[in-house]
Design goal:
Low-confidence stretches of chain A: none
Strand content of chain B: 15-25%
Largest interface: A-B, 91 and 85 residues
Oligomer: heterodimer
Number of strands of chain B: 9
Helix content of chain B: 25-40%
């Protein structure tokens, strides 16, 4: 909301400079988002006296002038027709800088030299379009700085951010009241001394009937006859323009002016368009339509407050007037409305229609129902004065249920307790009274314009902000409680993330909202979608972290960074649950593509393959000590290659997947190189691992190593041999690795060679060769038998 | 007999001066100090030395041994020095990189914030990102028609389920299950219906703080925010509180930190004001206590919020929030 410094002075006296005023109002809770001089700055312009004007020898429309700055005369070429000897003019000398940064230089115009420029108001940024130069009405001494001359009465514009709890401050008087709180000066209320025409009475022109008292608790009107529509006075236009309201005509401008002054919205109807001399306030019916004065036909939401005459609707109450009853050039008589509409009703209708106006913004936050007559009288007074209107005697005012001011229990000790202060009762009383709150023994009576004060805590805020938050005491933080637990979720997330980071991985961070088509690739149906998405790119909550990570892969490859390894942990959103919040487990995913390591002058690198991603996953699982898991061949994934995918399972429950992203999925994400990935459900993993664990003692005795290599059927999975050996080797087997696998060479078709390295170790002694050999030979026989394998030499 | 020792000494001195490489030095060492070297051999002759000069002989021989050891060591270290400077490797070639990873900068800053509050004795709590209207709005004193709902444009899943617009609902969830005293923060991702640009993202991160107890006051709130500001950005940071409005706090405040770049003098980042807006705070509104089942007569409390993204942007002088979720490796690898 904008106000100007000088305009505010109409309502309150204060000595603060423009910046001081901004600082104090900001400290009081009215954040000044912008403060700027109404007149844009310029320099090097002085008052000049036009001594002589002659025709330019080479141009009909130009004059050669002699302009004095009081000490010297300058030759200046001027193109304006209204330049004349004896004028005092704004004279931009060479070196002057005009608004917008335009610099004045010595110039030669049609062969004649010119030292400066005589300015129009337009050139000084004072009006949008000027005819001719600005000849001052009163002669001034030449050589005065013109900017200073104008700025002796300089005005400044403030743009406030008014919080929604303070609709009363969407007005000059509202801000003036806040200034009063720190100056102690009293408000100068605007004049409303009407001369009513007692020969005519309002009841002869209009009768008001409220059928929707809940939506419209008060409706009042006046009639102003014989107005002359014209432009409003220049000062009014200038003030309205300064605060961002476009001047239209005197009647509309006056309603806007009073709106800005008092914060109370008014509406002017053309009385001749009000049929039957009646106003009916009712709520709309289903499927009713209405054309607002912006010439848009609108579908009215049910229960919209409608202002009607005896036949039809003429305005949407508190939001916007109708085209059918708008003030126009032929308007003679005005029906001026001042009403109070219920905030909830205005908010609901406005939101549903997507329609917001200066009026609706104030009504939906809460106007002052007791300000209705004042605003009406003020506007009528101005119409009498500036539109030549005759104000008909009386106000038609329907106000069935008078609202009494709100009363709050006055408990200074509670205010002190909340603020951490020890102010006296008198001190607090004074602060509240400066804000026009009426303090008695036990009660504070809240003026009806303060819709935000309902409880004792609200009074505490009033005291706090009038004291200034900066001056409120600070209690040093010393009282540390060490018994506050870190939530298990936080602990787990950090644990998992740390373990990934310790694998030398780079953490990514991707969007939670993705395209529906992307979500479909990773989860078949059941997606959680947004009712009012920002764009088509963000309609669906991610059912997996992988779409986001694949986008990151694509982003980097497009910028020639082809080796990408990233992981992310975060919530994914998988299923709706009737009557509950949707499933939103924490997930951990990793993507891997490109070279295995950074290539260098002495380090050649291959492309990563399936075993790299599996290796990362295995390392991670080893670090978090997940036992009892199984990798199961997995060909049911919608986004992994059937032949290169594993399901990670614990007790037959899937807790993650790992594999190669299917080529068509990569293509969908604009990637044309193989990408490997895994994704784990951290909630499920958390249930099966032990966050607290004890170390396993390390044997101090040496281990014995034995290798065995078999020729066996190609179809036998390595894992089955490993499990078999592990199962049958006994307690002394400490470690088991596959160290070589190959096919071809002189091996028969359909066979492969697989070599295993076994390490035996005892916790309490050095193992003898005999003992180890015995176990080793037994294992060889068992493997040969079990897998129809033969030992290689 | 003693002349023999002198002869060995002379012999050694002559040889060591002629040695130009480490291998020769080793040979020399074996020749004189080895198990069957000249000095050992001479020691074994001790039995043949007349008794009257035996002590002197032994002493001189020991002295010689020490001298020889010392000189060989000295010569060896010279060779070592020489070999260091004469290495044939081109050490200016780059090394083999093991590659490196790291925490996302945003989450690193989140960790830092969490650690500060942890160290001040706050618990760290978590809550769902898809939240009910009740927890996100109603319980926080924001009824359906409340104009404050315009302040934060909400993304809806159903009419009653929303993407949480702040981490404040976690307050309610904690107060429902835990009796005061409460000291908690709730970090996490939040959502607004904002089109992405340099300073807006439809998802970002907040930390919500809540302290409830008997006689917790606005002065305590000012104290904790001061403590945080000093730990996060340094002890010269000034904190400013301004009145504001949030439905769930009363009194409500916005708090600003003095600009971390210009130290309050005024610069481009703070638009010449010397202050950087951080976030909102205030005393918990009695209606919020009542919604969460806490006696608002007995207890008071404060709540505060802060934007992790904003703090991370300030900390690293990042001017475009989108950098955080583009995952450009050239950006990420700087952390």
């Amino acid at each position: 909301m904008k106000i100007t410094y000088n305009w505010l002075k109409d309502y309150i006296d204060f000595d603060e400079t423009p910046q001081e005023l901004a600082d104090k109002l900001t400290a009081a809770g009215f954040e000044v988002e912008e403060l700027y001089p109404l007149v844009k700055s310029f320099s090097g312009v002085v008052t000049g006296f036009v001594e002589k004007v002659e025709k330019h020898p080479n141009a009909d429309k130009l004059s050669v002038c002699k302009v004095s700055d009081g000490t010297e005369s300058f030759q200046v070429i001027c193109g304006a027709a209204n330049v004349a000897e004896g004028q005092t003019v704004p004279f931009a000398q060479t070196g002057a800088v005009l608004p917008g940064g335009f610099k004045i230089k010595k110039a030669k115009i049609r062969g004649v030299e010119s030292f400066g420029m005589i300015c129009s108001k337009e050139e000084l940024g004072l009006e949008a379009k000027s005819e001719g130069i600005w000849a001052l009405e009163t002669a001034e001494k030449p050589g005065l700085d013109f900017y200073q001359l104008l700025n002796s009465n300089a005005d400044y514009v403030y743009d406030f951010f008014i919080t929604p709890n303070r609709p009363d401050c969407l007005s000059m008087i509202g801000i003036a009241r806040e200034v009063a709180a720190f100056t102690g000066n009293s408000i100068k209320y605007p004049k409303q001394s009407l001369c009513e025409d007692s020969t005519q009475n309002i009841s002869d022109f209009i009768s008001i009937h409220i059928h929707d008292e809940e939506g419209c608790p008060r409706y009042a009107a006046r009639v102003i006859k014989n107005v002359t529509l014209s432009e409003s006075p220049e000062w009014m236009q200038r003030r309205l323009s300064a605060v961002g309201i476009r001047p239209i005509n005197n009647i509309v401008d006056i309603t806007n002016y009073v709106l800005m002054e008092t914060g109370h919205p008014l509406h002017a109807f053309d009385l001749s368009e009000i049929r039957g001399s009646e106003i009916h306030v009712r709520s709309s019916e289903p499927n009713e339509k209405f054309t607002t004065l912006d010439n848009k036909e609108r579908q009215l939401p049910e229960n919209t407050v409608l202002i009607c005459d005896s036949e039809r609707a003429v305005a949407i109450g508190g939001i916007m007037g109708g085209l059918n009853s708008e003030v126009s050039a032929k308007t003679k008589d005005i029906l001026l409305e001042s009403a109070y509409f219920a905030p909830v009703r205005i908010a609901r209708s406005g939101k549903k229609m997507g329609l917001s106006s200066e009026a609706s913004q104030r009504f939906e936050r809460g106007a002052d129902r007791n300000a209705v007559p004042d605003a009406l009288n003020r506007a009528a007074y101005l119409m009498e004065k500036f539109a030549g209107g005759v104000v008909v005697s009386g106000i038609a005012d329907v106000y069935p249920q008078t609202i009494e001011p709100y009363k709050v229990v006055f408990q200074p000790d509670k205010i002190n307790r909340l603020l951490g202060t020890d102010y006296s009762r008198d001190f607090i009383t004074d602060k509240l009274q400066r804000l026009q709150l009426d303090v008695s023994e036990n009660t504070v009576t809240v003026p009806t314009f303060r819709v935000d004060i309902k409880k004792g805590v609200d009074l505490a805020e009033e005291v706090g902000r009038t004291v200034n938050y900066t001056h409120l005491p600070v209690k040093e933080f010393t009282d540390i409680h060490y018994d506050m637990p870190v939530s298990s979720v936080e602990k787990k997330l950090r644990y998992f993330t740390r373990n990934m980071l310790e694998l030398n991985l780079r953490e990514a961070f991707t969007a939670s909202m993705i395209k529906k088509s992307e979500a479909e690739l990773f989860q078949n149906g059941g997606h959680i979608t947004i009712l009012n998405p920002i764009s088509d790119d963000m309609t669906t909550m991610r059912p997996s972290l992988l779409p986001g990570l694949l986008k990151a892969v694509n982003y980097n490859i497009n910028r020639n960074m082809n080796d990408v390894r990233l992981f992310e942990s975060g919530r994914i959103f998988t299923h709706y649950r009737p009557g509950q919040l949707p499933d939103q487990p924490y997930s951990l995913a990793m993507v891997l593509t490109g070279k295995r390591w950074q290539e260098g002058w002495n380090a050649k690198a291959d492309m990563v393959d399936f075993y790299d991603i599996k290796g990362y996953l295995e390392s991670f699982l080893a670090k978090i000590a997940l036992d009892n898991f199984q990798f199961i061949l997995y060909d049911k994934s919608s986004y992994l290659c059937d032949k290169e995918a594993l399901s990670l399972e614990v007790k037959n429950q899937q807790i993650g997947v790992c594999g190669k992203i299917a080529a068509d999925i990569c293509t969908r994400f604009g990637i044309d190189q193989p990408v490997y990935a895994f994704e784990l459900n951290l909630d499920l993993i958390s249930d099966v691992i032990h966050f607290e664990r004890h170390y396993k003692p390390v044997s101090r005795y040496p281990y014995s190593e034995r290798d065995m290599a078999f020729i066996l059927d190609d179809s036998i999975a390595a894992d089955s041999v490993l499990s078999f050996i592990r199962k049958n080797a006994g307690k002394l087997l400490h470690d088991l690795q596959v160290f070589d696998v190959f096919r071809g060479g002189n091996l028969p078709e359909g066979k492969k060679s697989a070599a295993f390295r076994l390490r035996f170790q005892a916790p309490d002694r050095t193992l003898g060769d005999k003992e180890v050999d015995k176990i080793f030979r037994r294992l060889i026989q068992m493997v040969e038998k079990q897998f129809d394998a033969s030992l290689r030499n | 007999m003693l002349q023999k020792i002198d002869a060995i000494k002379k012999h050694f001195e002559a040889e060591i001066n002629n040695i130009n490489e480490p291998s020769g030095l080793e040979e020399l060492r074996i020749k004189f100090l080895g198990r069957k070297g000249m000095i050992s051999n001479t020691f074994s002759m001790l039995s043949e030395v007349p008794a009257e000069i035996k002590p002197l002989f032994g002493q001189r021989l020991n002295q010689l041994k020490k001298t020889v050891e010392h000189k060989i060591k000295e010569a060896a270290s010279k060779f070592e020095q020489k070999s260091r400077t004469e290495s044939r490797l081109d050490l200016t070639l780059p090394g083999r990189s093991p590659g490196y990873g790291g925490r996302h900068p945003l989450l690193a800053v989140a960790d830092e914030i969490k650690d500060i509050f942890s160290s001040l004795g706050f618990s760290i709590e978590d809550g769902p990102e898809i939240e009910t209207d009740f927890y996100n709005f109603e319980a926080l004193n924001i009824p359906k028609s409340h104009p404050a709902r315009d302040m934060q444009d909400t993304l809806y899943i159903t009419e009653d389920i929303v993407l949480r617009t702040h981490t404040s609902p976690v307050q309610i969830r904690v107060m429902e299950k835990q009796k005061p005293p409460i000291r908690m923060i709730a970090p996490g991702r939040v959502y607004r219906r904002d089109t992405p640009d340099a300073s807006h993202s439809p998802f970002f991160h907040q930390v919500e703080g809540l302290v409830v107890g008997e006689d917790v006051s606005f002065a305590d709130l000012k104290g904790i925010i001061n403590a945080f500001a000093h730990r996060m950005f340094g002890s010269d940071i000034q904190v400013r509180f301004r009145p504001s409005f949030f439905p769930f706090t009363e009194p409500s405040a916005e708090y600003d930190f003095s600009c971390v770049f210009c130290h309050g003098k005024g610069c481009n980042v703070c638009k010449g004001t010397g202050w950087m807006e951080i976030s909102g705070a205030g005393m918990v509104h009695p209606n919020v206590f009542e919604a969460a089942g806490i006696d608002s007569e007995k207890y008071t409390g404060y709540a505060f919020g802060m934007g992790i993204d904003r703090i991370a942007m300030l900390k690293y002088n990042i001017n475009d929030i989108r950098l955080f979720f583009e995952n450009d490796l050239r950006f990420l690898n700087q952390f």
